[in-house]
Amino acid sequence: HMSAKELIISHIKSLNLKDFVMASADQGRAKQVQKLADLLQVDSAFISKRRYSDGTVVAQAANSDVKGRAVVI
Questions:
Q1: Contact between residue 49 and residue 61 where contact means Cβ atoms under 8 Å apart
Q2: Does residue 66 or residue 40 have the better pLDDT?
């Protein structure tokens, strides 16, 4: 079992962001993003989106307000 969790956390901390949110752009990574957010003691955001056969992607819902905050995806 390999994980880049510690590397990712180290890199995010090196950015010295003041107010940021960890975000998952798809439901498949929501659990991992939540774990990272918990370790970093920051909020998390999840986006529910729908893909159409013509290639269009529409964000249908987001569970957090990220306005004015840095978002790390």
A1: no
A2: 40
CB-based contact 68:43 (threshold 8 Å)? no
Is the whole-model pTM more than 0.85?
no
- For residue 44, the cross-strand partners are 22
Residues 6 or more apart whose Cβ sits within 8 Å of residue 49: 25, 26, 57, 58, 59, 60
Question: What DSSP designation does 59 have?
Answer: E
Tokens of 60: 């249908």
HSE-CB at 62 with a 13 A cutoff on CA atoms is 15
Place of tokens 């995010």: 12
